[in-house]
Structures
1.
Amino acid sequence: MHLLIYGCILGILLGGVYGLMASGLALVWGIMRVLNIAQAVCVILGSYLAFTAFTVLHVDPMLAVLPISVVMFVFGVGIYYAFLRPIRRDRESLSILVTYAIAIGIEGALGLIYTTSLQHTGTSYATQSFEVGGFQIPTVELYAFLISVAILGLLALMLQRTRLGRALRAATQNPTAARLLGVDIDRVSAVGFGIGISTAAAAGAVYGMIYSFNPNSHYDLIGILLAIVVLGGFGSMRGAIVAALILGVIASVVFIYWPLWANLSFFGVVVVVLLFRPQGLWGVPNWATQ
Amino acid sequence: MTAMLEVRGVTKSFGGVVAVDHCTFSVAAGSLTGLIGPNGSGKTTLFNVITGYLPSDSGEIRLDGRLIRKPDPTWLYRQGVARTFQNARIFPELTLRENLALAIPAGWRMLLNIAISRADRERIDEALEIFGLSPLADHRAGELSYGQSRLLEFATTLMGRPRLVLLDEPTAGVNPIMIEILENHIRRLHETGVTVLLVEHRLEILMRLCETVIVLDQGALIAEGPPERVRRDPKVLDAYLGA
Amino acid sequence: MSRATKAGAIRAILVFALLLALPFVFTDHWIVNIAFFGLMFAVLAVAWNLIGGYAGYIWLGSIAFFGLGAYALAITFQHVPLTSGYLPFFALIPIGIAIGIVSIPLALLLLRVRAATFAVVSLAVLFVAEIFAFNLDGLTGGPQGLGMALPPFVVTTFERPFYLAMLVLLAAVMFCSWYLAKSKFGLMLFAIKGDEDRARGLGVRTTTVKVIAFALCCGFTGMAGGLWAYYITWIYPQFAMDPNTMFAIILMTYLGGKGTLWGPVLGAFLLAPAKEYFAYTLGGSAFYLIAYAALFLLVMFFLPRGVVPTVADFLARHRRRAAVLASGPRPAGEQVA
């Protein structure tokens, strides 16, 4: 019982970080119907940037989150204009293949720069933990969770309160109507993609403190992120966050009892979703009208 | 006359918006019934529910008096219920012949049969002839004009020898000459004994074609009867003129 | 037989005659080795095209069935002495059929969703298969891999039996692809790609059609996997179920022309040798990945429809222009509307 509760606590902490990664994926899908397979490799890229900032410049990864987000935002906007905007026909399917190619391109580039050996951002508090009610809580995981929640909060505030946020939400709900209301879909898409990438990288910066990573790690991560989006419902940020917490808890609990099969639990949930609610928790059913 | 199609208390809402609200009506066998209502009055949604493209929230649908628990488009087509769509859905990558061949129901032998068998070919050529599309038989459907694709879609729905045909605004966005051609085809279909339910938002077309008109407004049925009477119904005037 | 089918038959006979002659003309090991991989990718691409090209479903789990076939064959013959060495070739047939049948319940599950959701859940299949291959080490040997006895073939022409077996498999899958494209079934697959809901409304049993195409794809892919395992004799999870191989198959299909008969074959023959060459010279290194990504993006942006449809369109336009010049004004039927 004690172990079970402990698993749930760790799962929620980890789920918050996954939620940050996956919410960017859901946002991008909602705005432009692009499924960004490169989301996970951008997480790893964020991890490497934080790793470099830490080892070379001695900047704490949690402080590096802000500059990394800014840099990766620009990077994301660049990727949008270079590779995604030109896709006109059949965007849903083609974008999967194009972003996959981007993903392995970045993976290759990371391999050139950092080699393929495992790295870890080993801060002074990386191995510390503190005790709450008999549970050993690792300090980094708590910090990572808090930072993720803070960024998600900022993002939610931006979406609710600002002009840009309104434009993003309008584009998500009804692109045609948004265009009629004078929203420049193209620019909004670019900004949305930039935000998606920068949230991935910000999550990556803290992810690198918890786990070891190498350029190849994004394969494991993308499977997890996609499972989250399937459960949450495509294009629903709220769904992505809730699903991330649910899956984080399930995977952590499975990990405690059967460590080898933790990753399988993500896909087990996908099977259940397909059987009982193919559109996910907050998704729109795939009914064709007209 | 017996009812071919009965709709009882069908309701469908999207989020908080009620698109179809406890709609009840029936379509007599062999009749040509019009379903009319202003834009956004739930006509297409009702069509989608009847033909199994959308699940209803409540209510029941009966075909020949038989309750249909879970309407499915494929099953309904094979039972003789065919429909068209508001925006003329055809297969632009396939040729006209292939479009028509596809709509001829096939059993397990589809794996072995060539795309257009000899028996099918005769029926297809006949249909092409009736709809004046013969010269374009082997062209890709994507090359057709909008009006022609309407004709093709109409022809396609008849390949399954339906008993009930639901037409969703067949004359929308089509030039006057084509409207006349389409009207003639609808009339001819009706004369061969097929039941037709026709959605329109323009009264004058229904006046010319239909025996019975059903009027929907904001998802609810507001009038039913012969076109002349319905036209003078104050509720209908209200809905149309927006009093 | 119409003129078009006659031309097609001649083309097929010519291509297969050349492929049959290849290992007897060029006997160098490296040439036959690369040709073997060319054929293998052709089989995989043609099989993928059944569901990915004809029906338009981006199926990203195909390579899991390649791995399944590989493990099925390797596990079956792990402890069986290979007297003549030809037995595993024949074992591929029941393995292919079994894999096709096994894939049906999975197809019923996956095909509940479409488009991008389908792509995502099908990618999950690949990850799940990989997890099983790694973790069920009692059966698969886990990360250490699984070995078979060395095939007892003459060293000088060692690759030849494998090459010929793969050629037979290619002929089979090509025949299947050709026959389906000509059949009513193929018409239904094309309709599903075009507008699945409309097809449902025209009485097409879309689920049945998709599941059959899916099972055929998985069966042939599994057979190719089994043959591959026998050829390389030692299999590891990360090579038997490599996501990069999965996307390579798709890239080949797109390059040649998805939804066409010869496109996937052409794409495989163009890219598979390049893949083997670069894998050999650059290793599995970072440069290899970058080159691969660049090539992928080039194909996606500059040849999204593929070589075969682009060339066919060019020829058709050329021919039509000639016909119009010869026949004068347009036929009356085109002015109906």
2.
Amino acid sequence: MTGQICDLPALELVRRLKRGEFSAGEALDSTLARIELVEGRSGSVQNTSADPLDAARVHAYITVTRERARQQARAVDRALASGEDPGPLAGVPLAVKDIFCVAGTPSTAGSRILANFVSPYTATPVARLEAAGALTIGKANLDEFTYGSSNESSAFNPTTRNPWAADRVPGGSSGGSAAAVAAGEATLSLGTDTSGSIRQPAAFCGVVGLKPTYGRVSRYGLIAFASSLDSPGPLARNTTDAALMLGAIAGPDWRDSTAANAPLTDYVAELEAGVQGLRVGLSPDFLRLRTPDAETGELREQGLQPEIEQAVRRVAETLAGLGAEIVEDVPMPSVRFAIPAYFVISRVEAASNLHRYDGVKYGHRAAGPAADLSQLYRRSRGEGFGTQPKLRILMGMYVSGAQYEKRYYEQALRVRTAIRRDFERAFDQEGPARLDALLAPTTPTTAFELGKVYGDSVLMQYADLLTVPANHAGIPALSVPAGLDTSRLPIGVQWMGPDFSEATLLRIGRAYERATADQPWRQIRPAILRELMSA
Amino acid sequence: MAEAPKPKPIDEQVFQHLVQLAALELQADEAEYLRHELNAQLDAIRELEAVRIALDLPITSHGVPYGPAIRPSPRGDQIRPSELADAILAQAPEVMDRYLVVPDLPRIDLE
Amino acid sequence: MPEYESVIGLETHIQVKTRSKIFCGCKADSWNDPPNVNICPVCTGLPGVLPVLNQEVVAKAVQLASALHAESIQGESYFARKNYFYPDLPKGYQISQYDEPLARAGRFELPLPGRALATVGISRLHLEEDAGRTIYQAGRRLIDFNRCGVPLVEMVTEPDLRSADEVAQFLIRLRQLLRWLDISDADMERGQLRCDANVSIREPGSQQLNPKTEIKNVNSITNVRQAVQAEIERQIREVEAGRTIESWTLDWDDERGVLSRMRSKETEADYRYFREPDLLPIRVEETEKRALQQALPELPLARRARLVQAYGLPEYDAEILTEERSLADFFETSVKAYAGDPKRVSNWVMNDVLRLIRQAGATAGELGLQPAHLAEIIQLVDSGMITAGVGKELLEQARNAERSPRQLVEEQGLIQVTDSDVLREAAGKILQANPDQVESYRAGKKTILGWFVGQLMRETGGRADAKKARELLQELLER
């Protein structure tokens, strides 16, 4: 670790800030200096031509909100000076995935259709983070409307790169968020997870990503993809920071009637309780996968990237060594249908959620006079949406049509229930497995190359194979780094637990983190940082 | 249980209907790519049809069941003005006298 | 020319009277406001917003369903999205209910002139949000979102209505019920009660349902009657000419009195409904339902029947007195306070109180007249203390008055003059002052007596006992 403030984890940054070791203004300056060093051009719809410099930079952001952060830093420093409590996240630089509305900032969803939209209001989780003293550094790049697993579908170029290897994707859709946290361009990031969009990029970029229970964090202000699955949550350097951030954003919200009224926990306080006596399961259904062949499209039964399976085994052994009980062979028979069911549910909801972008109220309107209203709609939407939203709209239209609705949509909802039942059985304290958590790899592979998968919408969707079951079930899942593969790319593993068991998952993650703190892979820094900082 | 007949791929006519419903103006090459990808997705989705699943399995709107313990309390009938009306109008592409403006939809009279 | 029977079903949209909108905290009533002021990110469909249900809307809808004898008010019903593009629909979908509405299978008892009660089936009743308003102007549309998210109950009838007149009667009675229950102000001109009519025709006795057209956008009971009549006549002309009826959606232009339809195929219904994931199911607990039902007042038709039975009123009186709930309340409270012949109270209410109500453009409840004061005024007239004319004037004064009518009478000296000496002196003066009129009376023009009575009334400020005055004047003139 270097001594730079921007590389400190959030909890430590806040402690040292409160001890007066540095000011919020200095914390901000440190992060802005890092952005200056590694960011390169931020994403823009105007950028069409490639620049040779782009390849070695991160491009995590669409908008850097320096002035907003500067004002927030001043407020924190004033509070500190006058002896007031500046909040639990005082001075912590925060990247907000640009799927959240933040008043006065371009809130683009990575889409041309919202490129000129400046939100008049602020999303609840962002408002809570800002109220807790966080400094909003900027809006992070993402797949257009979160539709993707690589960030390559964003209308804002250049594409975000993986700080660990500039030729690799950062994952997605919260790719800018994960890359920013990994590269020190932000200490924390607020992302969203609909089928793995927090956990998969967290795994690819070697950071911690938590998808909370559906309803744990308010969705107000989150530009909707699949409303029944979308979960806002933290991306952070370690489990402690994820716990700290979850504590700030969780809880009911009168503006979201699906924000659960479940009791709140002090997630940080429970972190160090260890795993003694906890039952952690492994399921063959999360280790043997069915994915489409890249050439023929046929579904094939195949294993994971071997290093990932080995990492999962090592994690299980570590936990066993700490006193956890490992339960092998937990059956999860329905998760293999998670992707086709997700294809249907998410498209139906997405198509409807995208109806509002019509060139009338905000966002892109096709230039020039329109012959009539429907031409205005068709042109504005045709020009404003990229390929991924168009695909989702059309598929949503198809599977929700009256003649297909029962065949596809209802069947998909039944599959969702079946997946939920699998988890309920695994977590049932009277059942055979009686799990506190299920351990699984986060992704079938480590970060893939830019351009390798993009364009094949089916293969891209299968990147979410291991993450989407938790979204169907609504349950929480925590992904943590668990080593590097031979190409020095991060490997992620995840724990899934029963509804509102975030504290337990974070506890397990923290125990694993502490037990492996001295392992050599933890000392290795992302390649882009190594190169640019030694230059 | 009998296998459902294998649905036809999305042909040009069905595709055009979807495009019309979706209110999208597409370039020709773009349309071709989209139709190809839709059919590839449809192949994946068809796996669902093979799923043997109890038809009495309940359908829910969310994975998490919203039992009485966690259900948010209902909203009372209180006015909470947003004070954002002007900021909202400021985002609209065309406004006249506080109205948003769009072209008309033509109509015809009946005898 | 063969006869045709028309078959009409209505989809009514009722604006539920609440302070805030159905899914956000904006003010619901924008009648006197400029465009686009009562709006927020939620009701204008900004990216990222979510609906939150106003509980009062559910309570009022449950009361309405109960009043319509709905067999099933669902303990759990669901919102669904109805997807379509229209500029007055900011989200591109309307949050409505589809497969599981709040209530089904109700009925509406419709009294028809000269007939027994007709029963109009209510097939379903559900909650939804209103869309915005559009104004047509020179080839463009201007959009106002103030109305977006105003709570609506959609109530769908069976095709049980048989003429344009029956449609009008139904709407009049529905309006009465909605106001009676304080569910809606139900003013059609203000769009608080709207109705789409599904119209088809068939040969009498046939059970077949022919293709129907749907008339939308009609904003008064008169216009609904005209539009339905025009469409029935048009369909007959089409069928007579050997053409078939197509299932069009029609608009009624009330200024020009013509029906029109959209040119393109935008009306094609492909709404791709699915359950609204942003809202939890609507729950109506059994205890809550029972409490709401118990809070229901006696309904208009029951009240009408009771007024006839309990007070011996003619049907005609009972009908007028139950026009509006506070009027019926006013009547009954007045009768209790009066403790005399209810018909006498009814006469006062129907003639004099109603005149004040119409002049004020208010309801009986808003008039500021206490039933006890009406009773006292009638008693004062009955006892001969004041004249009927003074009584009528007192009604006006008694509005919002702090003192009782009796006190007003005493303060203003309005007590009826029955003292013969006083009246005789005043009459003598009048005869003296009008020798010509006296002359013509005595010459045989007896009808002029009324003029003399009027003069005497004026002289006494309306307080003269009219009978005595007449006798006295006659006596003096005959002399």
